[in-house]
What does this fold into?
Amino acid sequence: MIRCIAVDDEQLVRELLEDNIRQVPFLQLVKTCKNALEAAEILQSEKIDLIFLDIQMPKINGLQFLQSLRNPPLVILVTAYEKYALEGFNLQVADYLLKPFSFDRFLKACNRANELLRLQQGRQEEPQDFFVNVEYTLVKIVVNDIEYIEGLQNYIKIFLSSSSKPVLTRMTMKAVEEKLPAGMFIRTHKSFLVSAPRITAVKRDLVCIGDKEIPVSEFFKENVTRILNRPEN
It folds into this structure.
């Protein structure tokens, strides 16, 4: 769960951010703040992973506040002014939301922040094997053996390099994703998680593991291009 705060001097924007945050399953809203001083107090007392940060605020603007933090959390800038984009990205923000923004664009920014946090955590994380229930039997899943996972409503199929037959178990994609090491698996589609080290080729709307082709949806295409460090077509 990503613990976040929203900082904006406009009440309507704070309410919009609060509503949007509550719709994203992996976000936990800790507090909304009217200004940077309120946000600074929260950062001193709470563990915060992500800040939704307005730029134009009284006394201390968002960029000044961000520059004042020694070890800042991830930041998604939320502003009506496009002119600050370059300065924001020079400060290594996760994303830049230009008001007014749609929920789809908001969710895209959240997914980007989520992936960046998983990558950061993954640098120190060793794969942990886990067990799943298959027809009243606990079956061990070796994480390094997983090629990809397909979601089927309340079930998933786990495709392994050591077996021609996938493991079918009752589990959600969210639940299995929490068991996987951060940064090792990427979401290419709402129904597919893929082991990044096993990808052998990338096409416009597909990733390949040998002769197996896994779809890449438009919404998750940035996950592939960012993690594999290749430019979008």
Q: What stands out?
A: The chain has a mean pLDDT of 88. The chain is about 30% helix and 30% strand. Residues 2-122 form a domain with the Rossmann fold fold (CATH 3.40.50.2300). The CA atoms of residues 13 and 99 lie 9 Å apart.
